[in-house]
Amino acid sequence: MRKFSSQLWSLGVVLGCLTLPWIAMAQTLEEQGFTIAKEAEKREQGYVDSQADMVMILRDKEEVTSTREMKVSALEGDDEQGTKSLLLFLSPRDQKGTALLTFQHDDRADEQWLYLPALKRVKKIASNKKSGSFMGSEFSFEDIGGQSIEDYTYKFIKDEKYEDQDCFVNESFPKDPDSGYTRIRSWIDKTHYRTLKAEFYDRKQSLMKTMTTSGYKQYEGKFWRPEEVTMTNHQTKRSTVLQHSNIQFKTGLNSSDFNKNSLQRAR
Amino acid sequence: MRLLVVLGCLIPLVVSSEVYALAEPFFENGDWTAETGVEYRFFKDPGEFGQSQNVLALHLSGEYYTSWNDDSDLFTFVPYLLIDQEDSERTHADIREALWVHVDEFWELRTGITRVFWGKTEFVNLVDVVNQKDLVDDDDEKLGQPMLNLSVVRDRDIIDFYLLFGFRERTFPGVDGRLRTPLPVDASNPIYSPETSKNDIDFAFRWQRPLNDHLDMALSYFSGVNREPWYSYNYSLSQPMLIPNYHHIDQVGLELEYIYESWALKFEGINVRSEVEDYYAMVGGVEYTFNGVFNSDADLTLITEYVYDSRDGESPTYLEHDVAFGGRLFMNDEYGTTFQGGMLWDPDTNEKAVTFQAERRLGSQFKLEFRAVTVLERAAPELSDSTLAAVSALVNSPIIQNNYNYRQLLDFVIRVIQEEGLEELLTDPTIGLDTLQQLQRLITDSRKLNLIESDDFVELRLNYYY
Question: pTM score, two decimals?
Fold first, then answer.
């Protein structure tokens, strides 16, 4: 099964949950849900590699409390190897040069290495962290890391209009007991299978966070990427905006750009 | 040897074709960043030798970075300056990095000065020998080492060959510095064994290979001047000092790391053959991380490690048969708040050293760090009460030589007499006793912790990044 080629870090995708045209009446709601996710995955495939700059803006109510700048690059997986990605921190300044390398695996736990520039040390780290804040933001590790379509079960809920677009409303249920969520409800537009909005329900089944996307643009005549992803936490009233710029595809990256040596020299 | 030959053939090929055309790009389109740190240390007690209880220091470093040829050539330059209010030996400048990296698809060549990290464990990294310690700066700081490093990547294997040009001598606190040995070290007059010199070209090699998704391995070899000196005594009773002695070593190192879910098992082992001793040492331990403790975003990592050194009490560090415990609480918040605590415990002597550290970002350009270091349960060495008793105790100790023999005893007494004169030694049975007792404190089994006796301190450091 191919990995959800999700731009992982890059588009903060949270794609875990896409929905699909209800193709056959014979399908159960669960099968319909899966078919939608599958179609969305298919539309993500073939990007080869990508790069983007990201700015993360942390807000407490409306007040900006801090920002982080990052660079992400990803290399699409193939039948032999999963997606590889590299996340480089440019700010806050004490973190400059810190970088995270991730090898996604479909059938087993991902592998991750963290580079600590002050010590010049590359440290392999456990990749089982799911819930919990990413860098103090409202995104958690599982929101931001690439997810595999097999990481969830699905259920199609209904058709609904969201911001004048015909959408599937699909729910996905994380299989991993370490996930911070019990379910994620997503609004996916029927034309392009883009996630326009998603609601995250916590372990107590109450609404915890809402993610919205805006400024979708198409690249390479195929791939849709939002310029901005906003995650609002209803429990803490804090929010985080993730802005993408300089999105590029097929830039000629190869696997030698994703190893412990490249991690150390990333800029 | 074969590795050397291979390396010898490869490097001229690579260098000759590239090196000439490349003077200009080093200074084009570069970016400077810098960091200033103000450090304040408060020592619990006044210095045993009259050193100050309050010490201010300033750390200044910059980084220049440029790249060309579509990022296949990179150059970084990192000058560093440390100014200490009290200790002129701690005040020093260093080039941490002046490195040109040429990147190809399956290899990269690093030419110039840089720092290299080897190792897996948390409390001590036995295998990590490429760079000399910048001891006056801090225990985990390193001096820049000139080198040629070819790094070959093959699938998931990384093989590094190093030629290390010139030996960097260890830095030591001066007479006015804290955290020094009872007898100061004369860092500027080291003794090199006949097989070594300051201009040695050392060789190192490391092969990293993941054995599966969870288990990583690295094998390393180092042949060169031991970064860790032995010490000899300058035989002076009026201006006693320790002299660093550098020897040649051949070290083989093994690193293993197993990570599964929240567990990590880590191991480092070395086998060392030197001109003066053969020994092995290892460190291994377990680490477990609790994600989201106390119903928060915080992660808590607990670590325990055991250090073993086959030299027992003769090992030059205070890590011989020690157990280490530590914890790290990473708050995962906006400010990167982190707390760390650690304890080293020697079950034989019951000595304990405890450290606590905390750090937090202030705004986007400042970071505040706090540290406290204390030694609990010091074992007090037994000191001789006459000069001759002290001399004979010393002769039987590693600081003079590893094993007692008559010749050495004679040499030692003769050297002292030459320095101080026979008459005074005979007329006053306590002449130089202080000095000899200080020397003796260094060489008992417990000498390593005595190095920092009464040097418990707290440190506050504010870093500014721009």
Answer: 0.84
